[in-house]
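Response to reviewer comment R2.3. The reviewers asked that we include at least one raw input/output pair. We reproduce the pair for HMA domain-containing protein here without editing.
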Amino acid sequence: MGVGGTLEYISELIGSGGSHSYGKRKKKKQFQTVELKVRMDCDGCVLKVKNSLSSLKGVKSVEINKKQQKVTVSGYAEPSKVLKKAKTTGKKAEIWPYVPYNLVAQPYIAQAYDKKAPPGYVRKVDPYVTTGTMAVYNDDPSYTSMFSDDNPNACSIM
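Raw output as returned:
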């Protein structure tokens, strides 16, 4: 056992109160930020949502933007639990559905454009979902042979 292994062994003994727990390590929760859209009309609603989410175990901070209907929760809580706790207040809540305008390839398609979205944001859409239109590839060689790059004067339409 080298110096690094010895130090790790000693820190394990100190951290676990002297018992061996090599096989039973607890998985630490990661610090994360959860953004929610919560329907809030007044200051009472804001206070109710903030108090409810602050009481959740692992939550470090709760920031609310009433104008955008946006709640930002930072801490070690899971997003599903945060959403469930927000819904227990009786308010309509969902995971923040918007992304900045410049991150979407086509922000004005029907699925992305939302007139209720805050300024500079559009609804988050899956980039691989088609919008109902479909490109059709025609494998007919007569269209491609009408024009020739080798001889620009050989246009078969004229």
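Residues 3-15 form the longest helix (13 residues). The chain has a mean pLDDT of 76. Further pairs are available on request from the corresponding author.
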